[in-house]
From TrEMBL:
Keyword match Ribonucleoprotein: no
UniProt cross-references to PANTHER family, sorted A to Z: TETRAACYLDISACCHARIDE 4'-KINASE-RELATED
GO MF, any single term: ADP-heptose-lipopolysaccharide heptosyltransferase activity
Keyword Transmembrane applies: no
Any one annotated GO CC term: cytosol
Pfam families: Glyco_transf_9
Gene3D superfamilies hit by this protein: Glycogen Phosphorylase B
Keywords: Glycosyltransferase, Transferase
Domain of life from the UniProt record: Bacteria
Gene Ontology terms describing biological process: lipopolysaccharide core region biosynthetic process
Name of this chain's protein: Glycosyltransferase family 9 protein
């Protein structure tokens, strides 16, 4: 990728897990669409994933992080061609030492560097990673998005600055119950200012047999998310007895024992099971998935790969796996999650309920959901849903269906009454998306938000109208109070004397702490606001008007939706 090419050159840092890489593909597609495919994209990935290059378009290049760090910065830092100050150089030494520093603390030098390589039109870092953030800070690029290293500190969160959508992403970790934006949308908003655009899959499945081919991903990278082996075994038994099928077990070498336990537990029925755990490369695994009918999986990287290739799925989300955050982004995919006050896990707290969530979802429950996929043509959907409805009345779990018509969303297959907390999260989801959209055509209209909420919840039910009205009135009263507070605080920006302006701003930040205590359902907004102020202060900016306007927009947009919902209930 020469700096002299006419095509736009874009770099994306995505050095986390395989699932994160495939959750980044919608962002890449958005960037290609934005530039009419006239761009080259370099994606810095974990070293283990470079060999996936054949799965990407010719204008998308994967490079391992170790190779990129070496070829990009280490040579430059040693020669200080970017004229970094001593603090910046020291930060890089601290964070590169695990890669290249030898015993004498000198950088390993490769003199065959083409320095044209380091120029980009757009640079995007999707990871809360110090090394990637520091590189983004000094990289030669017209525009930069995401996490940027901008200071020396003992604390990681003070080294890495994050603006706009990246700041939102960072704060959702603390307030998971207040977030409804899928990570696919978050990545796209960070790097392209657009939410997920539903893809059309043009390939054809390479069917080998007439049998239904079902994949089981037997475990995830986190044991909190794993479904019990005995339930997988019971599910496999039900499937084999009721369908002409073959079940293929997938996983890494770490899951070989788990897969063997599932297969051996089936006794005489195990002839219908093929165990491929730890026996395929990732590239071959992707090709294999293209031959399947459906995937059954916890929250794993293979689930995200299935979304990208158009393979249908029924996923089971347990432990710290949050449906709204990392659920599948393929239209009509089903997700099953437990109904428990502690779900999803609040990291890093330890589970005090002995992972009760794993007991809430049984093999028979998943089988009934699977029937919706496999028997949809043989039986009426109403019959199948009635079978499932009786089970759902036990309130052990929810079943969601993925919709991608307006961002990634999940609808409970049976409409529910809404709580105040759910309504706050739902309406603010679309306010946040609009805030981070780069242009007007990518913003979501209020009437579309109202349609989504009416589709998902029992807002038009006579039984719940009075209750819903009370929720809306109380919530709208809170929002209008917050609007007043932030509008009044806007006067701080009119103070001309710099030290006094800073004093008043810091005082208002302290007042926000009290707001969080009294209005905890808006903590995500309050922390986002204070982080944006801190980011301005780090960059010695004294103009905070845009930050206040952002918060006012968020709250006013949400209040407007509530006003319209109330009218429709009358």
């Amino acid at each position: 990728m020469s700096a002299r090419e006419n095509k736009k050159k874009i770099i994306i840092f995505q050095t986390r897990r395989i699932g994160d890489l495939f959750q980044t593909l919608p962002l890449i597609n958005n960037i290609l669409k934005k530039h009419n495919n006239e761009c080259n994209i370099l994606v810095v990935v974990d070293d283990d994933f470079v060999n996936l290059q054949s799965n990407f378009k010719s204008n998308i290049e994967l490079i391992g992080k170790k190779e990129f760090y070496k070829h990009y910065y280490l040579n430059i830092a040693n020669n200080n061609k970017l004229k970094l100050n001593p603090n910046e150089i020291e930060l890089f030494k601290l964070n590169f030492k695990n890669y290249y520093w030898n015993n004498s603390n000198n950088i390993a030098i490769d003199s065959s560097i083409n320095y044209d390589f380091i120029y980009f039109d757009e640079a995007i870092n999707l990871t809360f990673d110090i090394t990637n953030s520091l590189i983004l800070n000094i990289i030669d690029s017209k525009v930069k998005f995401g996490f940027i290293g901008c200071g020396k500190s003992e604390k990681k969160n003070e080294i890495i600055c994050r603006g706009k959508a990246a700041n939102y992403f960072y704060n959702t970790i603390k307030y998971r119950e207040q977030n409804r934006i899928n990570i696919v949308d978050v990545f796209s908003l960070i790097g392209a200012g657009r939410y997920f655009l539903n893809s059309k899959y043009n390939f054809k499945f390479k069917k080998i047999k007439d049998k239904i081919r079902i994949f089981f991903v037997v475990a995830s990278s986190n044991s909190k998310r794993d479904w019990p082996v005995e339930e997988f075994t019971k599910l496999a038994e039900s499937i084999i007895k009721n369908f002409d099928c073959e079940i293929i077990l997938l996983g890494t070498q770490k899951e070989i024992e788990t897969a063997s336990e599932i297969k051996n537990g089936l006794n005489h029925l195990n002839h219908s099971v093929i165990d491929l755990t730890g026996r395929t490369t990732l590239n071959k695994l992707i090709d294999l998935l293209k031959t399947g009918d459906i995937l059954i999986s916890p929250d794993t990287g293979l689930l995200q790969i299935a979304c990208n290739i158009g393979l249908d799925s029924v996923s089971i989300f347990l432990g710290n796996a949050n449906v709204y955050e990392t659920g599948p982004y393929l239209k009509n995919a089903y997700v099953i999650s437990p109904i428990l006050s502690c779900y999803p896990c609040r990291e890093p707290e330890k589970c005090e309920n002995n992972f009760k969530c794993k007991d809430n979802i049984k093999a028979d429950d998943v089988f009934k959901v699977l029937e919706l996929k496999l028997l949809g043509k043989k039986y009426t959907k109403k019959t199948l849903l009635n079978n499932l409805k009786q089970t759902l009345q036990e309130k052990r779990f929810n079943v969601y269906k993925c919709d991608t018509s307006v961002s990634v969303a999940y609808y409970n297959i049976f409409k529910q009454n809404i709580t105040k907390q759910e309504l706050i999260a739902e309406i603010f989801k679309y306010a946040w998306i609009n805030l981070f959209a780069f242009d007007e055509q990518n913003k979501i209209k209020k009437e579309n938000v109202i349609k989504i909420i009416n589709k998902k919840y029992l807002f038009n039910s006579k039984i719940f109208n009075d209750k819903n009205n009370i929720i809306i009135e109380n919530l709208n009263s809170e929002l209008k109070y917050l609007i007043e507070i932030f509008k009044n605080a806007c006067s701080i920006n009119n103070i001309k004397e710099k030290s006094r302006k800073k004093y008043e701003l810091l005082n208002f930040k302290n007042n926000i702490v009290n707001l969080k205590i009294n209005y905890p359902d808006y903590s995500l907004i309050f922390d986002y606001f204070t982080d944006e102020i801190n980011y301005k202060l780090i960059n010695n900016s004294i103009n905070f008007k845009d930050i206040f306007n952002e918060i006012i927009y968020l709250v006013e947009f949400s209040s407007g939706i509530l006003d319209n919902l109330k009218i429709k209930l009358k």
